[in-house]
Write a structure and sequence with these properties.
heterodimer, A: 112 residues, mainly beta, 6-stranded mixed sheet, 5-stranded antiparallel sheet, globular, B: 111 residues, 7-stranded mixed sheet, 4-stranded antiparallel sheet
């Protein structure tokens, strides 16, 4: 059972543009929603995370928007740069345990 | 602080053999989780250890096992290897805020 659905599977954005990746979850017990960035040959790196008591969190060029009623959250990358080209994973978990349920990933390519 | 370290980074084994992978968490982190990453199934949770006790387990067969030592270092073991076990095995350690930080992974190839 896929509990976290991620879209799109791949995304091409021009340098300087906004990259948007969406995720939807089913389990209403989830209360922690991180995003990870993974480069080829590397482990996932924690990018930014949000808890459902806020609707938005911003860290530099990265913003998470969270819609609890729709059970959706998204990652926005402002002023996208070629160095942002990577695979991005959304995830969700219940704070009472450490099990992260991951989305299927989005391969982001930033073109000059 | 040093990040999560995993050894070995690459491993080639033959079907039927067993393998042990090692993970050293970030200093001060007491929880260690293991994940399997494959192109077909994505990132899947294997198990999590805290204070030498398994707290959570994913939907993997009993051939997959793990343990944690008193210094929080962890090992996972896969017995009777199958071709489908070929994957990137990732270890993550958690801080008190339950933020998980991943290591570089061990690339296991089963032939």
């Amino acid at each position: 059972q896929q509990q976290v659905k991620q879209s799109p599977q791949s995304l091409i954005v021009q340098k300087g543009g906004i990259s948007i990746i969406n995720c939807a979850y089913e389990n209403t017990a989830f209360d922690y929603f991180p995003w990870y960035q993974q480069f080829p040959g590397k482990g996932p790196a924690l990018l930014i995370a949000i808890r459902p008591d806020v609707s938005e969190k911003k860290e530099g060029r990265f913003t998470i928007s969270f819609n609890k009623s729709a059970k959706q959250f998204s990652l926005h990358i402002m002023d996208s740069q070629p160095g942002d080209s990577a695979t991005y994973f959304c995830a969700a978990s219940q704070r009472v345990n450490e099990k992260l349920t991951f989305g299927t990933g989005t391969r982001l390519t930033i073109i000059p | 602080k040093a990040g999560v370290t995993q050894t070995p980074r690459y491993l080639i084994k033959t079907r039927g053999q067993q393998v042990t992978l090692s993970c050293s968490p970030i200093s001060g982190h007491r929880s260690v989780s293991w994940y399997q990453q494959t192109p077909g199934q994505g990132l899947q949770f294997l198990f999590e250890y805290f204070s030498e006790t398994q707290r959570n387990k994913g939907n993997f067969p009993g051939r997959f096992s793990g343990r944690q030592f008193s210094n929080s270092r962890s090992e996972m073991n896969v017995s009777t290897l199958e071709l489908g076990d070929s994957a990137l095995y990732l270890c993550a350690s958690s801080n008190v805020e339950k933020e998980q930080y991943f290591g570089p992974g061990t690339r296991l190839t089963v032939t």
